[in-house]
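wait is this the right file?? whatever heres the structure
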């Protein structure tokens, strides 16, 4: 059995995620994988589970956080 890198649980059905930068992790659940590997918003620090917004190599959870931090003129919805 492998051990989850996040919580330390030994589990027979772990899985390994490899990111494009080569970072790897072995996890027993998607919850642990998200906590360990998902990006954090550069403004508010929340976990970015969707596409997010990228400006100058930084990830933001939404256009509001990107605007507040960078002054970018972006919105989440077109035509609103």
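ok assuming it is, sequence goes like this
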């Amino acid at each position: 059995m492998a051990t989850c890198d996040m919580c330390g649980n030994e589990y027979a059905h772990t899985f390994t995620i490899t990111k494009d930068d080569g970072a790897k992790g072995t996890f027993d659940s998607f919850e642990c994988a998200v906590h360990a590997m998902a990006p954090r918003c550069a403004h508010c620090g929340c976990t970015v589970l969707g596409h997010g917004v990228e400006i100058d190599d930084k990830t933001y959870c939404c256009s509001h956080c990107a605007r507040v931090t960078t002054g970018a003129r972006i919105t989440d919805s077109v035509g609103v």
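Residues 38-80 form one domain. so i think its the right one actually
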